[in-house]
Structure formats: C-alpha cells, structure tokens
Amino acid sequence: MKLLKTAAMIAGLSVIGAMGAQAEGLDELNPDVVERLYNPELLDPMQPSGASAFRDFVAKNPPPWKIGYASSYAGNTWRAGVMQELQNEIIPKWTELGLLDEVIITQSNLNDSTQIQQMRQLVDQGVDAIFVCCSNPTALNQTVKYAYDNGVPVFSLTGYLTSPYSVNSSVNYQVAGFELGKWMAEEIGGAGNVLVVEGIPGTSGSDSQDRGIKAGLASYPDIKVVGSIAGMWTDQVAQGEVQKWLATNPGKLDGIVVQSAAEMGVLRALQQSGRAEVPITIGGELGALCYWRNNPDYVSAVYQVWPPQNEVQLIWNIMMRTLQGQGPKIQSILVDPIRMTYEDIEKLVPADCNEQDPGWLRVAPEAWGLDSAFLDDFFLRPADPTKFLEK
Length: 391
Description:
Blueprint: E1 2-3, H1 23-26, H2 31-37, E2 65-71, H3 77-96, E3 100-107, H4 112-124, E4 129-133, H5 141-149, E5 154-157, E6 166-171, H6 173-187, E7 191-198, H7 204-218, E8 222-230, H8 235-248, E9 255-258, H9 263-273, H10 286-294, E10 302-304, H11 308-323, E11 332-335, E12 338-340, H12 342-348, H13 372-375
C-alpha cells in the first residue's frame, strides 16, 4: 500500500486566505507535507491551519492525567472500533506507563447542547484534557474556550473544530473525497449516473468529504449526480435510505459513492433490490472488504479515510505530547488517505473472512501519522511520549 500523494487540482473549490496569514506554523513544517496536505486549493476552506494556541502549553497537573472523551455518537461500527481500541489498548498501555489516571467517557447522541453540557462538566470535574469525536465544527467553540480558560486543552478526533483553542487531527477529507469521486468516475468509464451517500451532514468530516467527492465527480463532465442522501455513517441507516431511493428512482444507476461506515449497508441494499450490481466505494469495514476479497473483479481499489483504531491512536499521541509540553506547531495535524489494491487486501483479509464482520481494518501505524519522522515535525520539542517519565 502507498500513501496517497495527490497533486491534482480540485476545480471549483473555494480557496482560503493567503498562506502568509498562517505562515508561523506552516513555514515550520516539511514543505512537501504542506504542499500535499495544506495546499489551499486542496483544503476545506474552514479547516484551521494557523499556529497552535498550545505551542507553549504547560499542563496544570503532573501525570498521571485524567482524560475526558466527549463522544457525539455511539451507534455505528466506526465508533465501536474507537471504543474497543480505547478500552482494550490505549487505556491499559498508558496506565501502565504511569501517564494515565482514568478516562471519563460521555455520549451525546448527536445533540450539540448535550455535548456542550457534558464537556463543561468534564472541565468542572478536573480533567486535564478532553478529546471529542466527529462533532459540529462551530457549536462547541464557546465550550472549548471555557476549557482553555481552565487549563484544559481540547482535541478533535476525525474532523475539526474551528475554535483557535482546539487541536485537530484527521486525514485531509477534501483530498480524500476528491480521490473517491475521481476514482468512481474513472471506474465507470468517465460517464454515467452516480448516487452519493453522505455521512452525518453538518459535521466537518462529512461535509469536507462530500465537497471533495462532488468536485471529483464534477471533474468528469459526463458524470451526473442523480441523488444525494444521508447515510449517517451507519450501515442500517444507509441500507434503509438507499433502498428507499432505489425504489423511487428506477432509472439507470452506474455507481454509488458512500462514506464509511456505511458501505456494508449500501451493499446489502443493492443486493436486496434486485438491480444489477454497480461499483461502490469501499473504506475500512471488514465485511465489505471481505466481499471484495471474495469477488476480485468487483472494484479496482479501496480507500482508507479514517481507520478508527489508527485515528484514536493518533489523537491520543498528539494529546499526550501536548500535555508533556512538546508544543504543537499548528492547529490541525493532517495525514494522507491510503489507496489499497486487491493485492493489499488479499494479504490483510483472510480467505475465510466473514462478509457480515462489523469490524474495521487496521492499517500500519506509521502509515497513519505515527511515524516519528512524520509526527515529530508537527511539534516544537518532539520526543517519544511513552518515555516521558524516564527523563
């Protein structure tokens, strides 16, 4: 597998302000990374990329630290993957290192007001840091400032907050979406009708990716987007919504671009519709990857946009580095999407796999930001965060 290094220009996408306005942080990074992941023409115009407010941050308490996880939703396979990684891998490891006291977990079920209340309670309970997942990019900003004023940094996993007082990590979703859209257009020969299945509208990860997908499709003039529906990153929801769309739109359909985690639901909807099979975009759900493993000619490639185990490991590493005073240079630490071929999947997914498997494929940690040569460059005083107490 290779890290995707897109050089394509996305026609029609909004361009953010001059790079010079954000030069303090970006100028300190590897120029190749800046060109690949922070090029204004390839970046969500709302994605924060200025200098971090935590460059000189000092934690209010020594370790072991108390961490809050303010999750916005728990009802899909991706969130389950994050929770399993957190409880089974991260918490035991960092507790044993002497750096973690406890993790307090809350769920708001997509209610911004509830998440805001839960975050304020976490601050008042004395947590040392909070990380959030896949939230509204602006609704939490006042609460993020409240946390900052009380010495509690907030980290956004898989999507960004626009607050200058947050640290964000994710793939560059606009680049990832563009690649998905362009791939689908090429997969169906540059012409045809495509259905787009969004994630959770209003969240930064979904909106950024959707913008990129539609730009990628639009780069082929003979591609027509015949529908756009919300799959809510949930297989059951996507299955029902696609079934309804197929039942009321009997015209020709050539492909479906779907944001993970919903590809298994879309596959089931297609199979149950009685329609001819069409290609869909596949991400990291093991059931969908197993279907491809068993049907090698189905599609030509898949794209890893947010493997949950890797995503939570990355934001945790960034959070621990920040608590240790390593000083993040910029507000958003971005990584590359990963394109995988059938040969890659043949090695990673066993022949006796289960097409109903709700789990997710884990990619190599160094391919998802945890290569020290890559991540160290985003910090002013980089060090191995697991060695902090050995000093």
